[in-house]
Amino acid sequence: MSDLTLSVDIHEPQWLADRLGVKDKVHIGYCDILIEKNGETWGIERKTWTDALNSWMSKRLEKQLSNLVGLVDHAFLIIQHEPERKLRKGDGNTYEKFKKHAANLNAHLNRLCADVCPVIYCEDSAITVKEIDKLKE
Predict the structure, then answer these.
(1) Strands, E, within the chain: which ranges?
(2) How many whole angstroms from its chain centre is CA 33?
(3) Interval 68-96 mean pLDDT
């Protein structure tokens, strides 16, 4: 039987903690989800598409991941798409608003996957939870 601890950072939404079965969120500081299992650590940085776009444009994304890689045994970036944003009108639809940047962001994420850590693409929040659960196994 494995010794497993799953922590969710205080800045993550409550729905995520609830769906992962985490009662109390904690301050992690260097990732969004931390899995500790049999003496090894998995650090997961979860970004919605909009968050990833903003972090990439502000040059913060690579710094966050480089820091994470140095602090855990296994680092992962999860990109969670936001299908509900595609239905919004005006500035709320970040997919339409920033569509000219999408190809460049995807290229950057692919390079990060090759050079820094695995990138997991999830179509929505339900798939994000499933992918995190798989990493716990």
Answers:
(1) 4-8, 33-37, 40-48, 74-80, 119-122
(2) 8
(3) 81
